[in-house]
Amino acid sequence: MMDELDRKILRILQEEGRITNQELATRCAMSPSACLDRMRRLKERGFIRGYAALLDPVLLNQSFLVFVEVVLERTTGDIFRQFSDSVRMRPEIMECHMVAGGFDYLLKLRMPDMIAYRRFLVEVLAEIPGVRETRTYAVMDEVKSSFALPI
């Protein structure tokens, strides 16, 4: 079971992943060893899956953000598996979600520009077995982007 102190630790870590154990313990009003024990338990229980640096897509020439709806030819296990396997291989595809509704998958991609996306669409996405159609939504303004879960 997770208590409020565990939630506080997780909230702080989501915002400041590189915080020292000493500072985290101070902000949670506990000893460093107790804080380290709680963090170890949270990792062992799978609440903390890992740590990562958040990079600036503009500085890394990946500022073009696009969402793509994908409709498959058939909704069978083999087509789902082929599509999923193909998507996992592509670093441009940051997220892929199977959804209920008028299409089968929603993709989130980062690219340098529209030219790169068009090339990706024609040479990669349209060539994945089972893809019947796609609908593209280019992002004009990223109003909010967060990785923090509301805990």
TrEMBL record:
* InterPro entries referenced in this protein's UniProt entry, alphabetically: ArsR-like_HTH, AsnC-type_HTH_dom, Dimeric_a/b-barrel, Tscrpt_reg_AsnC-like, Tscrpt_reg_AsnC/Lrp_C, WH-like_DNA-bd_sf, WH_DNA-bd_sf
- Keyword annotations: Activator, DNA-binding, Transcription, Transcription regulation
Transcription listed as a keyword: yes
| SMART domains noted in UniProt | HTH_ASNC
Entry's PROSITE patterns?
HTH_ASNC_2 (PS50956)
Q: CDD domains annotated for this entry?
A: HTH_ARSR (cd00090)
| Pfam families from the UniProt entry | AsnC_trans_reg, HTH_24
Which segments constitute the HTH asnC-type domain?
A: 2-63
Work out whether the entry's keyword set contains RNA-binding.
Answer: no
Can you say what this protein is called?
Lrp/AsnC ligand binding domain-containing protein
